[in-house]
Specification:
The structure holds 2 protein chains of 2 kinds.
Chain A lengths: L1 H19 L7 H7 L15 H8 L8 H4 L5 E2 L17 E2 L5 E12 L6 E15 L4 E11 L2 E2 L2 E8 L13 E7 L18 H4 L24 E10 L3 E8 L13 E10 L22 E13 L10 E14 L2 E16 L2 E19 L2 E12 L5 E13 L2 E9 L8 E9 L1
Antiparallel strand pairs in A: 1-2, 3-4, 3-19, 4-5, 5-6, 5-7, 7-8, 8-9, 9-10, 10-11, 11-12, 12-13, 13-14, 14-15, 15-16, 16-17, 17-18, 18-19
Chain B lengths: L1 H19 L3 E8 L10 E4 L14 E5 L2 E3 L2 E5 L2 E7 L5 E4 L9 E5 L4 E6 L10 E3 L7 E7 L4 E3 L5 E7 L2 E8 L3 E2 L3 E5 L5 E6 L1 E2 L1
Parallel strand pairs in B: 1-17, 3-6, 5-11
Antiparallel strand pairs in B: 1-13, 2-12, 2-14, 3-4, 6-9, 7-8, 10-11, 14-16, 15-18
The chains are: A mainly beta, B mainly beta.
């Protein structure tokens, strides 16, 4: 009965969303708002180009004059001049003219030449996304995996953001506030904005594991820097080129707080050349290739926190630390990026509390062959202390069939046994 | 016969005098990235010599379908505007701006009119915003100008300021959210002047 009700509600949501569609695009609520293609902000979705990144950082607003670009006129909840009446009236804002709902559907097929089951069609996943602005400098995002691997899913990210705080005193873009469940702003290359099916071990690896995590780091799974976290975060951009972010989160993923202290993190990055983080500067490519943004970005981050001590040694929470450096080079049709992370988790083994340390590095090359075709090659290596190192090579190709429909074909293998016996194929579309 | 000649000469002189002080038009287009900005633009002369008398018939700003109509009303300083409520629901009109004496006309039902005289003369332009405290989304502007040489652009951005006497002028643009560079002109003894404005973000 409960499942029937859930399916009915989801069905209605899907039908409502389909009824609202007039053009197919990437996060289609944004595409509908601006009446623009997804390739305004993406190369092959969900990978963002530099403009898309500036749009995201600016709280889902065009870096320059969002109102000028908005085609789907918002509904006013108060005339702008009511700002003059405040505090004797509610501060004015507006809501999207069209409900900003989007659906993303992914399905797949796996081939394993050496496996007992050689071929497998995968259960599709269905993601419901809603994102937009609630007036100037107020934005939101909520996404839910409605179905994933045949199971009823869960909310992934759901946050509220106020951008350009105190912009009458501080420079524009300098201070933003985010509250809710989100991926901490330390993650330089998020899985859900990458081309590959195989997630970045950089984001998901745990020193207690003896192999790379296979799936996306959802709320209650083992810790990774990309785990959804509940908390509050400040971020901003200074002088167009410097970007920072800092926050406090429960550290327990999407689950209830389970340690006595909050986890904290900080990240800073600097971009040389190309378009600034705020969307300013840069040179438009004369041939309109909007993925070209010749630049180098260098970043560094730290995360420190604690998690519950379920062992018999002591009663204090166990500590967790991460430090990392990353780089991102864009040159013409080539994007080379990577990072190094050092982690230390305090774990209980027997009657001892030990530090488990690891180093992990990766590098990935994306090459635009055509605007609709990008190849990818990635190498990842983890070196857990006192354990054997783990390596992985991911090679594949992502192709747009249409601006909002893509295929990914890739293989992830151990480079010591370069036997591309496994193949992942994904079909992904959004509307 | 001599009298007729004198009268004819006098008539020619009067006609010549009238023609020499003929006023011209300032016409042109306002341009913007989005056409939605165009009809909210007022083009006006910054200052013009002379004493100007407000119109005897009051302009009307209606409240219909919970929208002020017109949304933007340019008037000569000293003009009294009649605020009509054509809706089935009650409306209010107030302004938080000093330039409109922070007026509040109260709340009144369908069919009634309340009036207000915009008498604050400014060196530049007064642009009091009008709000309705019953319906917070309602907003309008009365653009108070100290001379009668102004024009509101139409949907295509076209404007025409008629009857401008010869002389040097600074022509300006008023818009609630945009701005444009002033244009200096010399109005000739006869003929018209064409100018253009480009709206950009304030």
């Amino acid at each position: 009965m409960r499942h029937t009700l859930t399916i009915t509600i989801i069905g209605i949501l899907v039908l409502v969303s389909m009824a609202l569609v007039d053009k197919p695009n990437a996060i289609p609520s944004f595409a509908r708002k601006y009446e623009t293609s997804c390739i305004t902000c993406h190369t092959i979705f969900p990978k963002l180009n530099s403009f898309g990144e500036a749009y995201r950082l600016n709280g889902f607003q065009y870096p320059e004059d969002d109102a000028d670009q908005t085609k789907d006129e918002p509904v006013s909840l108060g005339a702008d001049a009511y700002k003059k009446v405040f505090p004797n009236a509610v501060w004015p804002n507006d809501i999207p003219g069209t409900p900003p709902i989007a659906i993303r559907v992914a399905s797949g097929f796996n081939y394993d030449r050496q496996g007992k089951i050689k071929t497998e069609f995968l259960s599709p996943s269905l993601i419901l996304m809603t994102a937009g602005t609630l007036g100037e400098n107020v934005s939101f995002y909520a996404g839910a995996h409605l179905f994933e691997e045949g199971e009823i899913g869960s909310i992934d990210r759901a946050f509220f953001q106020i951008s350009n705080l105190f912009n009458n005193k501080l420079p524009e873009h300098f201070l933003n506030l985010r509250i809710g469940q989100f991926i901490p702003n330390i993650v330089p290359f998020a899985n859900h904005r990458g081309l590959a099916v195989t997630p970045y071990a950089f984001n998901t690896y745990s020193p207690t594991a003896d192999e790379f995590e296979a799936g996306h780091a959802h709320g209650n799974e083992s810790f990774g820097i990309e785990t959804f976290q509940l908390g509050v975060e400040l971020s901003g951009i200074a002088s167009s080129r410097f970007r920072w972010g800092a926050g406090f989160v429960n550290g327990s993923g999407a689950a209830a707080e389970n340690s006595s202290a909050k986890d904290g993190y900080f990240r800073a990055a600097y971009k040389l050349g190309g378009m600034g983080f705020d969307g300013s500067g840069g040179t438009a490519d004369p041939r309109g290739r909007n993925w070209i943004d010749n630049s180098i970005t260098l970043g560094g981050f730290t995360y420190f926190g604690s998690y519950p001590n379920d062992g018999l040694v002591g009663s204090n929470d166990l500590s967790r630390e991460r430090y990392g450096l990353d780089f991102n080079v864009l040159f013409q049709n080539t994007n080379l990026f990577g990072g190094w992370i050092r982690g230390k988790d305090e774990v209980v083994e027997g009657n001892l509390a030990l530090d488990k340390k690891y180093d992990l590095g990766f590098v990935e090359l994306n090459q635009v062959i055509y605007p609709w075709l990008i190849t990818l090659a990635r190498y990842e290596r983890a070196e857990p202390e006192a354990q054997q190192s783990i390596e992985r090579v991911v090679a594949g190709v992502a192709a747009l069939y249409r601006a909002n429909i893509k295929f990914v074909v890739e293989s992830a293998v151990d480079p010591s046994d370069l036997n591309f016996s496994k193949l992942n194929v994904r079909l992904d579309f959004a509307f | 016969m001599k009298l007729i000649k004198l009268l004819s000469l006098g008539l020619i002189l009067v006609i010549f005098q009238f023609a020499s002080s003929d006023a011209g038009d300032i016409t042109g287009f306002v341009k913007a990235k989005r056409s939605k900005y165009l009809p909210k633009t007022v083009v006006y002369i910054e200052s013009a010599p002379g004493d100007f008398i407000p119109p005897e018939k009051n302009p009307v700003m209606d409240q219909l379908n919970m929208i002020f109509s017109p949304h933007i009303l340019p008037v000569l300083v000293g003009t009294t505007v009649d605020f009509l409520n054509s809706d089935d629901v009650a409306h209010n009109v107030f302004s938080p701006d000093e330039s409109a004496d922070k007026m509040n006309l109260g709340t009144w039902p369908k069919g009634d009119i309340r009036s207000f005289t915009f008498k604050n003369s400014c060196e530049k332009v007064c642009d009091p915003v009008l709000l309705c405290n019953v319906h917070p989304e309602m907003e309008a502007y009365v653009v108070v100008i100290d001379n009668p040489y102004f024009s509101k652009a139409d949907d295509s951005g076209f404007f025409k300021i008629s009857g401008v006497p010869p002389g040097k002028y600074n022509v300006k643009v008023w818009h609630p959210k945009r701005k444009a560079e002033d244009v200096s002109i010399v109005m000739p003894d006869s003929g018209s002047v064409e100018i253009e404005f480009a709206l950009k973000k304030k």
